Request: fold
Amino acid sequence: YPQGMVDFFKNSCPAGYTWQRSLLFEDGAVCTASADITVSVEENCFYHESKFHGVVNFPADGPVMKKMTTNWEPCCEKIIPVPRQGILKGDVAMYLLLKDGGRYRCQFDSVYKAKTDSKKMPEWHFIQHKLTREDRSDAKN
Reply:
């Protein structure tokens, strides 16, 4: 975060924060995911435990099931503070790039919550993302 802007995520540490996310794909497929992030000052590291849930309605002939996706396109997430609830809401349209040059739209809706009361909430802002997928030969699926 730039100097002078409240960094909700750093301010939530070392106790950390959680997030919940719904992923709604253009063809009706749905997934949910969650994460629990904590910081160990003693070990000088952070821990990120994530879970991927509820993969439903992916068409058998769609790009995910046919393994036609190659990577994620860079994007920009809109972050909206909700001070009364002590959360940030994230809203972003993500696109998976396809082998044929097309794109597959996925709407990410996220809720970020500090594990302790947040000292300060940031103003609404944007976060630029670039997710890079790495295919691993040791992966099971």
Q: What stands out?
A: The radius of gyration is 17 Å.
